[in-house]
Amino acid sequence: MTDPWVALEPGADPAERVRALRRAHETFTAVGTVPRPVRSVVAESWRRSARAGVGPDGTASVELTDGDLGAYRAEHPLARVMPLFRELMGTFAADGEHLLAVCDAHGRLLWVEGHTATRRLADRMNFVPGARWSENAVGTNAPGTAVAVDRPVQVFAAEHFIRRVQPWTCAAAPVHDPRTGRVLGAVDITGGDGLAHPHSLGFVQAVARAAETQLALFTPPRAEEAPLLSALGRDEAELALDGRRIRLSRRHSEILVLLSRHPEGLSGDELLCSLYADESVTPVTLRAELARLRRLMGPGLLASRPYRLTAVVESDATVVERRLETGALTAAAEAYTGPLLPGSQAPAIVRLRERLSGGLRAALVAHGDPDLLADWAHAPWGEDDVEVWRALAAVHPTAPVRARLAALEAELAAPAGRAPARTRGRPGPSPCATYLQRPPV
Fold this sequence. Notes:
Helix content: 40-55%
InterPro entries: GAF, GAF-like_dom_sf, OmpR/PhoB-type_DNA-bd
Keywords: DNA-binding
Domain OmpR/PhoB-type: 243-309
Mean pLDDT: 87
Order of helices and strands: HHHHEEHHHEEEHEEEHHHEEEHHHHHHH
Number of domains: 3
CATH superfamily of the largest domain: GAF domain
Strand content: 5-15%
Organism: Streptomyces echinatus
Number of helices: 18
Strand order of the largest sheet: 2-1-5-4-3
Radius of gyration: 23 Å
CATH class of the largest domain: Alpha Beta
Structural class: alpha+beta
Region (Disordered): 416-441
Largest sheet: 5 strands, antiparallel
Number of strands: 11
């Protein structure tokens, strides 16, 4: 197969492929191995689904109904492009006995529209507005997997992880915020085996790009807009500057995160101590990194003696902190798109990352809102967070939640030769601790 994202290669027999996939699915659920002809994207999704505690006989949970659903949809950014989705896909869905579906970045379905009889069939598996169809909740499916991997994807028949969904085929593509690049959700077409054609994948991808173009027209960039640093949930940050989107190296990402938090500047020794656990690294190495960063951003933004930014750079991490400090927990959770530079081992970044995630999760546990807890528990960074799963089970004790919590607690109770991941390898105090604990401005 030339394109692993397309479900069926030209000439493939759909009926025979369905039989082979069902055998492969039974093998995986029985012994955990993935035989051919399962595509790599599906195999990886099956493994993620199993690690999340999804059972093959499970079902989706409806989390938002009535007024809560209406209020959430009205405020969601994708509400502005629903007329476009209906114009481009509504007739295709109705005539082909398919469904048009739109989900948010957490895989929660916001709209499900299309052929009336097909909608009635979909209702039986809770493919309805307000239901959570993230990978971590119901396993492999096109809208949930599209937002999980941030790629357009087809899921054909028995490639679905949950058995009751296996009669269906779907194709979905993520939709991004044109200004920040953040995933807002996904647009999906769901129906019969005919959607396994490559054209359906290209179709939803084109619709998603059209939606992003329209969103950009709704919110054109301002000439005086401050530089924006996106560093949550990504190993390499992105800087939006003067209409450009600059992809930064990991080291440059770390430097800009620290300098954005210290507008008064940091000395060379402070910055060196913050970035390198290895004390043998020399100031020459740091100066070379700063020189490369200055050339990348252009003249005037990075000054020295002390090293500082000459303009205010807004960071998505500080947005979360600011909202958390003011008690806007829902807004803080919405802005939190993952751990701060998760691959970084720079001492100061590790501390900032743990402080931000720890503060937010503690607030979520204390608040006890089931939707916010579910969002965290079903996110990649929360799938093994037993404290959050316990809090979720206390307020929303569904069968899948109880099963996942039982699995996590069994892992904790089993004899182990090493400390839990949450505490293993935590760095001790460093010489940088004093000034890095100053509150951000």
